[in-house]
C-alpha cells in the first residue's frame, strides 16, 4: 500500500505527448479556416432548419394572438347595460 495515486497501475506500450501551455496557440487558423468553415456549415444546413423554425415561429405568434383575443370581453354582451 505504499503506492501514490499516480502510480497505482503500470501501463505499458502507451506513449503520451504534451505541449507546454506557453507553446500552444490560442486561436490557430481561426480567421483563415474557422470562419469560412462556419459559413459553409450554416449555408449547407440553412434550408433544412429554416422552414421548421419559420413554421414554429408562425405557430407561436398565431397561438399568442388567439390567446389574447380569447381573453378580451365581447362588447356585444354589455350593450344594454347602463
Main attributes of the structure:
single chain, 82 residues, mainly alpha, 51% helix, 0% strand, elongated
What does it look like?
By secondary structure, this protein is mainly α. It is 51% helix and 0% strand. The chain contains 1 helix and no strands. The mean pLDDT is 87.
Mean pLDDT: 87
Number of strands: 0
Cα-atom radius of gyration: 31 Å
Q: Main sheet?
A: none
Oligomeric category: single chain
**How many helices does DSSP assign?**
1
Shape: elongated
Question: First CA to last CA: what distance?
Answer: 94 Å
The unreliable regions are none
Order of helices and strands: H
Output the structural class: mainly alpha
Provide the helix percentage: 40-55%
- The proportion of strand residues reads under 5%
Amino acid at each position: 500500500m505504499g503506492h501514490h495515486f499516480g502510480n497505482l497501475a503500470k501501463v505499458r506500450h502507451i506513449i503520451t505527448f504534451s505541449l507546454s501551455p506557453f507553446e500552444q496557440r490560442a486561436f490557430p487558423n481561426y480567421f483563415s479556416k474557422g470562419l469560412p468553415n462556419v459559413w459553409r456549415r450554416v449555408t449547407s444546413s440553412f434550408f433544412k432548419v429554416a422552414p421548421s423554425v419559420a413554421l414554429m415561429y408562425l405557430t407561436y405568434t398565431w397561438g399568442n394572438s388567439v390567446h389574447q383575443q380569447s381573453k378580451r370581453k365581447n362588447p356585444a354582451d354589455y350593450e344594454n347595460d347602463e
